[in-house]
């Protein structure tokens, strides 16, 4: 009977010892702290209260919500300290990452000090770059109601693009007559419009058209703008209710100057002719 009791007690004692030793190897993720923003080359830091299992391997990773991505693996800087420099510029800007660390035995990883995490961490490397793409419509493009044209900007895979808005701003009133949202693909935005499907645009108006990129932290940047000239269905610029395009204004000015010069020369020649005619008729 006493022998059976010893057999029963030994496993319990063993489990108790393991739990006591494991509890003495508690891992803490020190940096980043919860809800902290990180940027550039950022030093991740974790520590153990003690290291009785000789844990020498620290693995840092982040949770995207759908997968765990390894940031890096490092050996301990000291018996209880683990640091790793993370080049965050290689990660698109995003809000609310979960950063994890796991400390293990470097040889076979059968002993672990456990995990620790920081929630709500933001990757923050500034606003995205919004550059018009080569297939974006040309400046001063003339369109009618049934015309199509393309609006597009290059990808920014460094900071990432989580949303994209196209603005149509009247050159006459400076009022935004339409703002259309485009779903980004691979950190870029591109779409082809038919003029008749864009609400709020008026025939005879010219529009400054530009794109706005926003990253995962709602940092926003606008592209340069290009002028889109919306003629009426007959292709004529509507007078009074709208405005002529800058090109039309220039051409009209040149025509007026030519007409004025021609009239001035004609009047000058006529005055000379009349002078000599009157001179010889005296």
CATH superfamily of the largest domain: Immunoglobulins
The Rg value, from CA coordinates, equals: 36 Å
- Our estimate of the beta-strand percent is 35-45%
Write down the CATH topology of the largest domain. Immunoglobulin-like
Give the proportion of residues in helices.
Answer: 10-25%
CATH-level-2 architecture of the largest domain: Sandwich
Number of extended strands: 16
- In whole angstroms, how far apart are the ends? 159 Å
Average pLDDT over all residues: 80
Structural class, from helix and strand content?
alpha+beta
Which runs of at least 5 residues are low in confidence (pLDDT < 50)?
13-22, 235-245
Count of spatially separate domains = 2
Determine the number of helices (DSSP H or I, runs of at least 4 residues).
2
What is the molecular shape?
A: elongated
Which CATH C-level class of the largest domain is it?
Mainly Beta
The helix/strand series, from N terminus to C terminus, equals HEEEEEEEEEEEEEEEEH
Largest sheet properties: 6 strands, mixed
């Amino acid at each position: 009977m006493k022998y059976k009791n010893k057999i029963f007690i030994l496993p319990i004692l063993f489990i108790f010892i393991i739990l006591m030793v494991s509890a003495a190897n508690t891992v803490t993720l020190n940096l980043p702290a919860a809800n902290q923003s990180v940027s550039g080359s950022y030093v991740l830091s974790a520590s153990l209260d003690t290291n009785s299992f000789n844990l020498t391997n620290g693995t840092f990773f982040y949770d995207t919500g759908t997968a765990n991505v390894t940031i890096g693996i490092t050996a301990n800087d000291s018996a209880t300290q683990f640091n790793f420099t993370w080049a965050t510029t290689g990660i698109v800007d995003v809000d609310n990452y979960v950063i994890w660390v796991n400390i293990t035995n470097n040889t076979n990883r059968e002993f672990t000090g456990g995990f620790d995490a920081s929630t709500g961490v933001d990757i923050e490397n500034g606003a995205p770059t919004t550059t018009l793409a080569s297939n974006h419509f040309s400046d001063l493009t003339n369109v009618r109601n049934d015309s199509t044209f393309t609006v597009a900007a290059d990808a920014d895979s460094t900071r990432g693009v989580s949303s994209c808005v196209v603005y149509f701003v009247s050159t006459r009133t400076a009022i935004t007559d339409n703002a259309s949202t485009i779903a980004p693909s691979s950190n870029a935005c591109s779409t082809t419009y038919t003029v008749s499907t864009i609400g709020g645009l008026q025939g005879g108006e010219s529009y400054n058209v530009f794109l706005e990129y926003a990253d995962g932290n709602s940092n926003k940047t606008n592209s340069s703008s290009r002028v889109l000239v919306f003629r009426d269905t007959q292709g004529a610029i509507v007078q009074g209710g709208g405005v002529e395009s800058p090109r039309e204004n220039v051409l009209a000015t040149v025509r007026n100057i030519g007409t004025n010069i021609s009239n001035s020369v004609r009047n000058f020649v006529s005055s000379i002719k009349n002078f000599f005619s009157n001179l010889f008729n005296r």
